[in-house]
Specification:
The protein has 103 residues and is mostly helical. The protein has a domain at 25-95: Winged helix-like DNA-binding domain superfamily/Winged helix DNA-binding domain (Arc Repressor Mutant, subunit A, Orthogonal Bundle). It is 40% helix and 10% strand. It contains 3 helices and 3 strands. The protein has helices at 41-52, 57-64, 68-88; strands at residues 25-26, 37-40, 92-95. Strands 1-3-2 form a 3-stranded mixed beta sheet. α1 (41-52) packs antiparallel against α2 (57-64), α1 (41-52) crosses α3 and α2 crosses α3. The longest helix has 21 residues, at 68-88. The radius of gyration is 15 Å and the shape is elongated. The N and C termini lie far apart (31 Å).
Length: 103
């Protein structure tokens, strides 16, 4: 009998993302420094809305159609991943979100 594959807990809710980034991979000058950091598109969008566009977390959450707590988690994850890439000189790859296949 094959093992069942499923995640525990609730399914992740869909986030509204307005468009995709013009570049999906950033490589530090001097070449790739190891395994890339994978930034999900939803994390990218949270980072863009709050840190680049200057939206409040409440407004950004409304824009993405999610709770403020969900936005906060995505934003925290994005900031940690970007910091990891900068500090350790690792490439950043922006990819489809949370296991989705690009519908």
């Amino acid at each position: 009998m094959a093992p069942r594959r499923h995640r525990r807990g609730r399914r992740r809710c869909r986030r509204r993302v307005t468009g995709s980034p013009s570049v999906s991979r950033f490589v530090p000058r001097g070449g790739a420094g190891g395994e890339p950091v994978h930034l999900f598109i939803e994390e990218f969008e949270a980072l863009r809305l709050v840190d680049l566009e200057g939206m409040t977390q409440t407004d950004a959450a409304t824009e993405m159609g999610i709770s403020q707590k969900t936005l906060w988690k995505d934003l925290r994850d994005a900031r940690v991943k970007v910091a990891e890439a900068i500090v350790n000189g690792r490439p950043i790859e922006i990819e489809q979100g949370y296991g989705e296949t690009g519908e």
